[in-house]
Amino acid sequence: METALSDQPAPPDRVGRRASYGLSLLVALGWYVTVIAAIVVGELSIPERPRPADGCSMPFACMSRAEGLQFMAVVLGVPILGGLLIVSLLMIALVARKVASPIVAGTVCAAASVAVVMAAIAAYGGLR
Amino acid sequence: MKRVGLGLLFFAWLYGVPFLLIVGLIRRTSTPYAPTRADAHAYAATTDRILTWALILNAALVFAGLLLSRLTADDAWWRRFMWSIAWMMGVYVAVSLAAAQATAPLIGHVPDSDEPQPRITQCIPISGGTGCPGG
Fold it and tell me: Residue A104 sits in which domain range?
């Protein structure tokens, strides 16, 4: 570190090269909230064919979009979101040391966490 | 106060534009229930409005931020909004890549409805027109 070797004060734009962990995490969480909210709003805004009076004896045969979202949230949402959170928490700890901006750190970590979790799901699907 | 305003503008852009784009693209790629052609047109009009606003706001909010941070001489936000231009371009590239995947245009596509196409069921002879089948 230059500042440690010399007694010169650091130039203003070199102060605080680390992004705040909490702020980076907030930015990453903001992305998850935004994407999930957009999917829910988008899916629920689509008009649906009225349910037929009969022919719904098969399970999942006549699931509405809202029911489909609830099903996905419970079956896939909880484990995937948990995985995303854990990967994000670890990744932000690494990235926030190198990147000065919490906005960049949080966004990169959110995108990278999605990539890691997708890869893990693909690997799990391939191994089965 | 000034910093709060610029921050609000920035996060409205950062999260708001992708939000609108995702909602619009989900609507655009779905098959809605549309009993009449008017329903299909109304659905398409809303989808087009969402996508158009997302594309407009993507650039407009960044330039508004640049302008406001210049006027208030806020160097930190000026730099942030300058960097945002790269992300803004990336959003446009991503949208045009998504648009290239579809055969129909991204904006201006009307989904099918359940209303049958009008069929010609009777022939009224007019002067100068082609004759009716069977005389």
Answer: 19-44+60-127
